[in-house]
Each structure stands twice: as C-alpha cells, then as structure tokens.
Task: inverse folding
C-alpha cells in the first residue's frame, strides 16, 4: 500500500525566512523529514522594521488560512537575535532592539521562535541536509556577508545571550575594508560575495580585456559576483584567480573555527556557493594548510549545503516545533 498523504501526528509548523527584501514562508512537516507542504512569498522594502514585521505576519496568515494542524512558527532573520527573540542589532538591516518574537506571537496566537537566519539554516542542514548524521556541525553561509551557525553535541549552540556564531565579524585584516558592523577588516569583508564584487571591479579596471569585464558590459563598476563566477566557469583566468583568493581566505578562517569548535563537518552555504569548486577547492586547500596538526586529526570535510534557500525556513519550523515539544514534555 502506498504511504497515505496524511500529515504526521506531531503536526505542522510554519517556517519563515525574513530576508532584507523578501519574506518567504513555508508550511513544514517536521515529523516527515521536513517535507514542505506549502509556500508563500511577499516582497518587502528593506530598511523598515515595521514593514518587515507586517510582511512576516502577512505571509504566516496566508499560510494559516483554512489550514488545520499548524502548531508553531519559526522565523529566521538576519542580525543579532537574543534568547527572547528580540532583534537587537543587524549590520545591514533596520532591526534595532525590536521585539519581533513577541510581536508575531501576539498577532498570530501561536508559539513562536525567532532566531538568527544562519542559526536556523544550520539547524535545517543539520536535521535534513548536508549535516545529517553528524553531531557537531559548523555552517558558514557565504552571501553578501558571512553568517554562521554552530551545532554542538546535537544542539544548536546559542551562547549566553543568543549571539553566538557571528563568525563574519572576526577581524582578520587590521585596517582592512570597512564593515557594516563599523569595524575594519572583518572576515566577511575579505571572504564573502562582497570581496568577490570588490576584487572583480578592481580586476576589470586592471584587465579590461578579461572576460569578466566583458560580461559586465565593459563597465568595471558593474561587475558583480555572478559575472566573476560566470567568467571563471567560461575559462577566464582572472576571474578564477579572484575566486581562488577569496576561497583561500575562506579556508583560513574555517581552519581557525575548526580549531575552536572541532566539528565533524563544515557545511558551506549561501549565494557564493554558485561558484562551486572554484571557491571550495582553494578553501579546502587553505584549510588543510592552516588547521592545527592536520595529519594528527580526522579529515574534516568542507561540503556544499544541500538545501539551498529553503534551509532557513525549514530549520526555523523544525526548531519551533522542537522547542514546543520540549516544553510540552517538561510540563507533563
Ligand atoms: Zn564586521
């Protein structure tokens, strides 16, 4: 007999990925391998905390409309989120001391968990993606900046206040490029999409004959990370060198984090992963050079994330459901 298409007995959860410019919500069945049951997306103007909150509530309402069985809501948002789900600060978004979790809970009347976007993505990859079967996992998301999520001993590691794993803001280049957090030379300024953009523009000025300059229509200021990746995939050595340099910085940083955390696996996600092994191979090589005593420790695989853009929302939903189940277990 085919498996019935019924939902699992544990119920459903909504997971929301609240990005800077769009809010995507999923209905997830955590008891069935994080299966996605439904999805909605709303475009939201960046730089406005109130409008972003309304968009999150709107997406969740659309998903709840006429549907039974949703028991919890999880939200992942970029920035520093404390243990009560207050958005304390975000380098690139408008969140400042904003009680997002309480606002959503009040509006929808469902148990809600708000956590950092990379934390929930780490949880998604750990439960259902590239980190499955491990106990200790580091997620590094390489997008415009660098986010991180740590799973330690099978649990999401949040620190004393909820701010753990802000790995993009370790200073690796004193007096380096200015970061959104206010410091100079943070890791995310030299090893993320922003670094690829910056080195790409510089290379297009110095090598106007290179394919990456041509792909940007000859305007060095129009060079994006995507043009660099496309050029590298089409054999442009200038573009390949840029990805190799950024990959090297990525691998060196990962080595430092592996020295601290000792994970079984490092999962690399985020938009820059489109560059594939142009970025990851140099990262693996630099990692092997930089990690402490590589010949005296098990190999730590550095692998691409498996769940794409859904990792955050699926992870947020599962996290919200896990928290609810734990609370229920404690109260019985
Ligand atoms: Zn920074």
Result:
């Amino acid at each position: 007999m085919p498996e019935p298409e019924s939902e699992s007995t544990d119920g459903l959860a909504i997971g929301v990925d609240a990005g800077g410019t769009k809010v995507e919500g999923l209905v997830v069945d955590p008891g069935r391998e994080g299966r996605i049951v439904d999805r909605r997306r709303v475009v939201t103007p960046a730089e406005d905390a109130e409008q972003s909150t309304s968009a999150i509530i709107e997406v969740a309402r659309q998903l709840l409309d006429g549907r039974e069985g949703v028991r919890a809501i999880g939200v992942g948002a970029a920035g520093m989120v404390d243990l009560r789900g207050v958005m304390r600060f975000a380098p690139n978004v408008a969140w400042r001391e904003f009680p997002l979790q309480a606002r959503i809970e009040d509006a929808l009347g469902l148990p809600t968990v708000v956590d950092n976007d990379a934390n929930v993505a780490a949880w998604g990859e750990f439960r259902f993606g590239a980190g499955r079967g491990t106990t200790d996992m580091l997620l590094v998301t390489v997008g415009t900046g660098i986010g991180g999520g740590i799973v330690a001993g099978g649990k999401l590691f949040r620190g004393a206040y909820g701010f753990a794993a802000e790995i993009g803001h370790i200073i690796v280049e004193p007096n380096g490029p200015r970061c959104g957090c206010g410091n100079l030379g943070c890791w995310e300024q030299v090893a993320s999409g922003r670094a690829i953009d910056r080195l790409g523009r510089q290379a297009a000025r110095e090598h106007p004959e290179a394919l990456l300059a041509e792909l940007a229509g000859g305007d060095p200021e129009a060079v994006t990370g995507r043009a660099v990746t496309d050029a590298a995939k089409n054999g442009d050595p200038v573009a390949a060198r840029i990805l190799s340099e950024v990959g090297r910085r990525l691998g060196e940083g990962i080595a430092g984090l592996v020295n601290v955390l000792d994970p079984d696996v490092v999962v690399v996600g985020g938009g820059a992963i489109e560059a594939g092994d142009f970025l990851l191979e140099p990262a693996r090589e630099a990692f092997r050079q930089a990690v402490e005593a590589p010949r005296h420790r098990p190999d730590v695989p550095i692998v691409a994330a498996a769940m794409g853009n859904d990792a955050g929302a699926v992870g947020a939903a599962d996290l919200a459901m896990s928290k609810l189940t734990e609370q229920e277990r404690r109260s019985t």
Observations:
- The radius of gyration is 20 Å.
- The longest strand covers residues 35-43.
- The chain has two domains: 12-124+309-331, 134-305.
